[in-house]
Amino acid sequence: MNTNRNQALESLYREVQQCTRCVLHTGRTFAVPGAGPIDADIMFIGEAPGFHEDQQGIPFVGRAGQFLNELLEKNGIDRKKVYIGNVIKCRPPGNREPKQEEVDACLPYLERQIELVNPKVIVTLGRYSMALAYKDEKISVIHGQPRKVSGRIYFPMYHPAAILRQPSLTPIAEADFALLRNVLAGNVEIEEFAPPPQVEQLAFF
């Protein structure tokens, strides 16, 4: 029942907000567990909270979030009906890239979120969450190429923040979102892949 799943998700949020598994907890204003309905068919997973997310405790509310909202709206996807989270739940200092030990500390939370929400499609935004299904791949090569892993569709895209830094990526992002719309409509045949090795760790270094 959704009631039980919602309660489990709320319990997970409380854990995240009190988490001291890595050093990032010492500098946070708010942890940013995630946001969205428990029965969402689609889940977006980014990298880590930025300044505005840390201040509000809500994912993707800064410039990157505004750009993501624009892409969603252009493609008829209601943000209120999708689940959005990050690999890392606390902001790294200066928005630096997450360290491996920080990823390892947060990964169990993300795995539980995926299990509870059980989305049909996971959109990975950037290379960190991409490693859930695309190990040792480059985002510049694999973006826009969905695959099934254990019956779930994974769809890799550039992170909105990367597109803001490099506006030449905008047409690529728009094309990827157009394809995502077709994937959600069931109009794309998607190949099944085996889970990547050592999926219990998102290793980047």
Description:
It is a single chain. The protein is globular. It has one domain: 3-Layer(aba) Sandwich (Uracil-DNA Glycosylase, subunit E), CATH 3.40.470.10. The chain is an alpha/beta fold. The protein has helices at 2-17, 51-56, 63-74, 100-117, 127-130, 139-142, 160-165, 170-184; strands at 42-46, 83-86, 121-125, 147-149, 152-157, 192-193. Strands 2-1-3-5-4-6 form a 6-stranded mixed β-sheet, with helices on both faces. 40% of the residues lie in helices and 12% in strands. The longest helix has 18 residues, at 100-117. The chain has 8 helices and 6 strands, in the order αβααβαβααββααβ. A hairpin with a 2-residue loop joins strand 4 (147-149) and strand 5 (152-157).
CATH topology: Uracil-DNA Glycosylase, subunit E
Instruction: Characterize the largest beta sheet: strand count, sense, and whether it forms a barrel.
Output: 6 strands, mixed
Total count of domains? 1
Radius of gyration (Å) = 16 Å
Mean pLDDT: 92
What order do the helices and strands follow? HEHHEHEHHEEHHE
List keywords for this structure.
205 residues; alpha/beta; Uracil-DNA Glycosylase, subunit E; 40% helix; globular; disordered C terminus
Summarize the structure.
With 205 residues, the chain is of the alpha/beta class. The chain is built from eight helices and six strands, in the order αβααβαβααββααβ.
Compile the SSE list and pairings.
Elements lengths: L1 H16 L24 E5 L4 H6 L6 H12 L8 E4 L13 H18 L3 E5 L1 H4 L8 H4 L4 E3 L2 E6 L2 H6 L4 H15 L7 E2 L12
Parallel strand pairs: 1-2, 1-3, 3-5, 4-6
Antiparallel strand pairs: 4-5
Helix pairs in contact: 1-4
